[in-house]
Amino acid sequence: MDGLAGSGRGRAMKRPVLGFVVATALAASSAAVAQVSAETTIGQPEQTRIKEYVVKEKVKPAMIKEKVTVGATLPADVELHAAPADWGPSVSRYRSIYTDDHVVLVEPSSRRIVHIVE
């Protein structure tokens, strides 16, 4: 009977440990998601400036075969353009392309799409 009682306590101890591990993993993944969201948030004033720039400068659209979505990586043959400084400090670190009536902001080192201005 002691063997059964001991195994019951062992299971009882495993549940809190498992709960702690799951909670820690969820907290870590939430922090990672928050970081990604924070780096891709573009304010309305910046989005308006970006849209006005595309119209004023008559930016030529890029032809891209792949679906353009946040998180996707652009092929190496797609030419990236420097974001003008007047787009704002939260945007100037990225490169951009104009395609399908949208300005797409890209992390230059990875070519990963971080934001699409609608």
Structural commentary:
The protein is α+β, with helices and mostly antiparallel strands and 118 residues long. Helix content is 44%, strand content 16%. It has helices spanning 2-40, 44-56, and strands at residues 81-82, 95-99, 102-107, 112-117. Strands 1-2-3-4 form a four-stranded antiparallel sheet, covered by helices on one side. A hairpin with a 2-residue loop joins strand 2 and strand 3 (102-107). The longest helix has 39 residues, at 2-40. It is globular. The protein starts with a helix and ends with a strand. Mean pLDDT is 75; it is low at 17-39.
Name the overall outline: globular
* Strand percent estimate: 15-25%
Total helix count?
A: 2
First-residue to last-residue Cα separation:
68 Å
| Biggest sheet statistics | 4 strands, antiparallel
Query: Rg, please?
Result: 23 Å
Unreliable residue stretches: 17-39
- How are helices and strands ordered from N to C? HHEEEE
DSSP helix fraction: 40-55%
Number of strands: 4
Q: Could you tell me the mean pLDDT?
A: 75
Strand order of the largest sheet: 1-2-3-4
Structural class: alpha+beta
